[in-house]
Write a structure and sequence with these properties.
74% of the residues lie in helices and 0% in strands. By secondary structure, the protein is mainly α. The protein has one domain. Helix 2 crosses helix 4. It is flat.
Length: 95
C-alpha cells in the first residue's frame, strides 16, 4: 500500500460512535441554549427591535425582521454567517 493510499484510508474512515457523541455534545448544548433563549423573553422589546434592524442593515438580509426573541436573532445570525462562510454547502442543500 502506498503512502497516499494509507492517508486516504485514514481520512475516509468513519469516526467511532464515542467520538461522534463527543463532537455532538457541544452542538446539542448550544441548540438547547438557543431554544431556551427563543422561548424566554430575555431582552426588552425595543432592544430586540433595534438589533433586528441593525442586523438587517449589516447583513442586507430581511430574515432578521421576522425574529421575535433574542434566540430567534441568534439562530438567524448563525444561519446567515454560516451561509456567508460556506456558500457552496447551502447552494447544494435546501435547508
Amino acid at each position: 500500500m502506498s503512502f497516499a493510499d494509507s492517508i486516504n484510508n485514514t481520512l475516509t474512515k468513519q469516526p467511532n460512535k464515542p467520538s461522534r457523541k463527543k463532537c455532538l455534545y457541544p452542538v446539542n448544548k448550544i441548540k438547547q441554549l438557543i431554544d431556551i433563549m427563543s422561548a424566554d423573553p430575555i431582552m426588552p422589546e425595543e432592544k430586540i427591535s433595534q438589533l433586528k434592524n441593525e442586523l438587517t442593515a449589516y447583513h442586507q438580509n430581511d430574515d432578521f425582521l421576522k425574529c421575535k426573541t433574542a434566540g430567534d436573532i441568534v439562530k438567524a445570525n448563525l444561519k446567515t454567517s454560516t451561509q456567508k462562510k460556506f456558500p457552496a454547502y447551502f447552494k447544494s442543500s435546501k435547508s
